[in-house]
Structure formats: C-alpha cells, structure tokens
C-alpha cells in the first residue's frame, strides 16, 4: 500500500525539483558538494567545462540514501608538460546520513574519486539547510578539498594521508578522511522560480593540474554562478570560478519510473464485440472455409504486432502459438491476442490458450476465458478480474495446427550500423560506421541459422595505435586488430538449436562462428520455473580464437570456457545474477551482476568479476567491472517497438574475467515470460 | 520449392510490415481500423484535450453492454458508459477504467447531490492504482448549444491528491450531448461534442 500511495503521490505531484548539477557534473553547488538526497532512482547526466577541464558524469540515486556517480574527465595540458591531454575516469559515492528536519540540516558524507587514478581524490562531510529560498551549505573536506587554510587532521591513524595508489580500479581506502581537513561553505538563493544564484568558498587549489602545466588559474577562493532549470528536466548553468575561469554546466535528470507518457501512446486494443455479432461473421457462418477463419485471425493478430504460428481447437478451447514482436509487457500481448481471438473465433470457444514462442521455442501458455475477458474489459479493476481468471502453464512443444507459412521462414535485413569504443586512453570516443547485413533462416521450430556481416565505411577503432600489453592470453585486448580487418567482416555465422528437454527446462546448442573473436560450439541448459524467483543455468563452450581478418580462419588459441549461473529476482526492484566458472583466458572465478529493474522495462545495474588472475596480471583496472543500462525504446516514445537498447559501459576491457558473447542465451529469452515477470506488468493486460 | 519461396516472400513482407508498424503512429496515414470506419461513415465525436488543445476526431467502433468504444485516427481511443468516460487508451492518459455509476444515475435523473467516483490509473511504473473521489453534482441552469436547449451540470470531485471539475450538457431527454471530463493528471480534461449523429 505504501508503494502504491507513493506512486500516486508521484503521479499527482508531477515534476519534482531538478537535481542541480555542479561543475563536477554531479549534484552540488559549483565545485563544492551539498547534502540532501535526490528522489530515489533519479538518474542525472551532467556535463561541465571548467577552464581547461571538461567533466562528464552520470549519477544515480541507488537507494533513498546512497548515490553513486561515474565521471569521465578530459584535462587539457595535464600530461607531457602541458602539451598532452589526460583522460581520467573517477567514481564517487555520496551517503546521506541525516535528512533535513525543521530545525536540523541535512548531513551527508561523500567520497570523490575513491577508486580512480586519484586526481580528484577527496572526501567530505557536509551539511545543508534550506531557509525559504536560501540554502546554506557548510562542510569539511579532505584530500584535494583541503588545499587552502587546512585546520589540521583527525588524530591517530588519520593524521597522515598516504600517497595515492596510481592503479585505477583499486580502492584507496587507506587515504579516506586522512591528512589535513579544510572548511568550505556556500549559498544558493532561488530567485524567480527556476533560476538560482550560487556563491561558494572553495579551498581547492588545483595543485596537481597547475604543477603539471594545465591552465587552471586560482586567483581567489570564491566561485559565483547562476543556474536555470527548464521544464523538461534540463538545467543550464554559468559560473565565474576562482576569479579567473568561466565555467559552464549542463544537466539532465530523469526518473526511469516516470516516463513522459505514463499511460502509453499505443492504440486502442480491439474492443470486444457482442457474442451474437461474432457468431454472425462471414467466416463463422455454416459452410465457411476453415481457412477464412485462420486467415482473418492471422491478419488481425498481425495488425496488433503478434505473429500467428499455429492454431488448434479442442471443443470449447482454442489454442494459438504466437510470437510477440512488439510488446515489452507480455500481459499486454496476451490481452490483445485474447481480444482478437474473442472477436474472430465463434462464441462456442470459451477458453483461449495463448502459447508464446520465441524462435520456435514454446515458453509459456497463458489461458484466459472469454467470460473473464468480457467482465474485465471495462470494469474498474478489470486487470484484477483478469489476473484472477488467468492461468499460466509451462508450454509443451507441438507442431499441431501449424500455419503453412510459419516454417521454413527467412529474414534478411540490410541496415547501417554504428559501433562505439569508449574510454580509449588516447581518444575517449572511437567509432565505426558502415553497412550491416543480417540474415536468418528458420527451417523448423527451434532451429535458427544466422549470419551477420559488416562492411565498415569509416572506422576509427581499428586505427588506434596502442597494442595490448596484457601478460595474459590476448582473449579480448586485440579488439583493435579485429576492428582493423579490411573489407567485409563476418561477425557471426551460426546454427542454433533451441529445445525443451523437460518441464521448466530449456536447452540450446550453437555451433559456428559464434562472435567476432571466437568460433566453436556452445551448449546451455536452463532451469527456469514458471513461478518463483530462482533460475539456474549451465553453459559450456569449446572455442578457438578467430583470425584478425574476420573471415573463416582461426588463430592458435583454444579455450574451454563455461559457467554455472544462478539468477535471482530479489525482493523489491533488484535482480542478481551470479556466474561461476572458467573464463576465456583460462582463469577461474565469478561474476556478480546486480540490476535495479523497473516494471516498465528499464534496467540499470553493475557487474564485477573476480578471478584467479591477480590485479597486477590483469593490468589497468585491476579487475573486470562495468555498468549496464537497458532501456526499452518505448520508454521514450511510448509506442511499442519490442526493442531494448542495451549499453554496457566498461572503464577498460582487459583479458581477465572475459566471457564469450554468444547469441540466443536462454535466460534473456525466457525471462519476460517466467518467474513472476508476467505478474509484475499485469496491469497492462487491458491496454 | 515455389511454395517455399512464396512463403518466404510472405514472411519477409510480414517482417517489413512489423518493422514499419511502430512508425505507423507517426505518419499521417490513419490507423486501418479508423480508416475502415471512416469509409463506412458512422457516428463521430470531436474530442480535444483542453490543456494541450489537441483535437481528435473519434469514430464509433463498438458497443457491448452499456459501453461504447470510440477510436481516433492515431489508433488511440476511449470508452464511454452512458456518455461518462470509462477509460482512455493511447494519448498518454493514465485512465485505465472508471466507475462513475452513481454520478451517471444522478445525471440521468437530472438530479443534484453527492456521488462517489473511482478511477483506476496506470502509473509510469506499470502499476495500476485505484483512486476514490467524492463528487458534488450541481445544476448550473439552462444553456443553449447551437440550437439545442440543454442544462449544464457540474460534477466537482475531490480525492486525496487531486480535485477536478467535469461538465455535462444534458438535453431534454437527459442524454449527455456535450461534456468536459478529466482523464487523469498527465493529460487533464478532454472535451467531447458530437460531430455527426449515429
């Protein structure tokens, strides 16, 4: 009930206050942090320019009190005596200890750049109090923030601040809150509605930047700024910093739980016709050809984005096997399919069994009665009526009543592609654009032959001059050499067999050129019960590394790699995945992935892999980790597309903890149809 | 063999259609179901979202029981129960369903009084929530709409987090000929007036 009330309040209040982003591209005044949490789940993107430094950051309110941020900074003149540019990654954590009360300020603790190369390494304890339109902030800073008039240090082990460990990826916990601390303070004053004036005292002296030749100039410890917030979540700011530099900030915030069009913009599902109207349809009259009914059903389902593969009839029950091509909420696909069935099939059919199929692999059968459909169509709590009357069952493979056009089926597509490579030490954004051709053939249910060819037209990934310095087998770090393959590149050429070995069990065998860098055989077994939070999987791959020319040849490196995986839908919005096994370089270890999942399909998470490769052997970054973002395209458009944009952001890709990237992995295939996912989005059944 | 080839072509054509389906809403071509109704020429309503000023012609698609379904050129539409809004689809409005039977009964009898009303909304997180309102129905006196003599009724509703005002113009038989009704916080009120009688 609490969640519902909160959702409703959110619904009523509309836009809440923006997350004001400072010049570190994370929430704050200008250079200084402030206390106070953003609304839970707020995702903010910031871009800031301060003198010769550009900072871009993504910050995310992980829990009501904890916020994380990942920053990428470009500092002109930091390297090679002022001639070279430094590209630097850093990560922040901000913990709100006390929420603001009528008399007490909000109090927070934070770490800036706690695991990076240490340029921005600092810690703070800060308090902020709102008094009408004025917000007063005061705090203590350590590390970089203790540049000017330090007060002294905490006693005992906190007295000395050790030198930073320069390897990115390792926590510098030994430095935190050590050494001298200096005070900072600031004010923000909201003038006309959406505009805020900012003033702060910053003890930061930009010692490192100035010592290395970057053109940061510090004439005064005072920064002044102006920030304006727009309706659409965008904030723009300008500042005059340290008596010398002009600063600019751009911020954008959004709450994944609140898309722009909450109700969706997709069309009205077919309204249910009265039963006598359905009975009188031409295809239901005596003597009509059974083909006429099937063709009508096929055409009307297709208009709803549902592809019909088979139709069976057993007395009062009718069964369809369908592919859901566009609806990210499975109940919505089920509801629309059932309505079309109710409007096409004669009234004697009272029960609709809808089996969802992917690549010919039957996953789940959703059964809805005609009576419940009618009762729920316009009832106030129609979704509840329908949920109570809907049963789910594990689907069994069958080819009964298969449409002649269903198999064999083929698909060819030619489209442009854009591939990006982020965070290269010499150039933060490298990319490749060109033409991609994909072809697939499905000769029978469960068998997929697929090819993926690319022809790069302009490529800056393959032109990178850095070569791998990895001491491990180069299982991933030769990516540049693959990207440099001239002409046509064969990314994938596979035969995949998907099957149901038993109840709640799913199987896959894939052979061929599995991905850009590896060919071989991959086999997977997944146990994914219809109900319950847990699923278990096992995958084994025997692969050989492919030639750099991206054609049919191989190099000399073989790997036997595979994992046992546990997938668990945690209480609340969290989902965890643990993979334990042998990685491509022969290293043994595990990967933990934690995702925060919104019922509307947005998923945000992080993963980390630890293996028996030591941090030194691994090289830069110490171990493999990254962030994952998945956003269904209909979140933006609210028009159904069935497509999900998935972005994995790794600070650096090395050879330790590297996994094979085989297509058609089973869990993502079955996920939306199993284990309570249908329940989570059931409210959409009448949309 | 020929059969296989034709079936592949059929499949490719389907795939192409599916790929284009999401774009259909953006183009100016009306949704196929709307186009078919437009050709048949049935009853029509003129709907407009009051806040954004967006005008939507609606065509009568189906009637089952006491509920009429109306569809717009973009494929979105709404349901009316005795002329009172029973749900909106496709315009970014959250109203899944509504129970305004008490208000409908008072209006049909041309009476004033207090009536409970419930709305079910879809949140941005795909949850359904029910909100309850208490509505005060008052008679605002006679109004002439073009040539039709009507009485204007106000339905002032108050809930825990929102309040809204619905307007109904009733003809001599007690039928709602024109109205302005609330669809939820996202899109606000929608006005409905007859464009073409059935």
Description:
The complex is a heterodimer of chains A (687) and B (198). With 687 residues, chain A is mostly beta strands. Chain A has three domains: 17-254, monomeric porin ompg (Porin, Beta Barrel), CATH 2.40.160; 275-406, GMP Synthetase, Chain A, domain 3 (2-Layer Sandwich); 410-678, no CATH class. In chain A, 13% of the residues lie in helices and 45% in strands. Chain A is built from twelve helices and 31 strands. In chain A, the strands form three sheets. Chain A has a 13-stranded antiparallel sheet. In chain A, α4 packs antiparallel against α5 (330-344) and α6 (370-377) runs antiparallel to α7. The radius of gyration of chain A is 29 Å and the shape is globular. Chain A starts with a helix and ends in a 7-residue tail after the last helix. Chain B has a single domain (31-196), classed as YmcC-like (YmcC-like fold, Beta Barrel), CATH 2.40.360.10. In chain B, 20% of the residues lie in helices and 51% in strands. In chain B, a hairpin with a 2-residue loop joins β4 and β5 (84-89). The longest helix of chain B has 23 residues, at 2-24. The radius of gyration of chain B is 20 Å and the shape is globular. At the A-B interface, α1, α7 and β19 of A face α1, β2, β3, β4 and β5 of B.
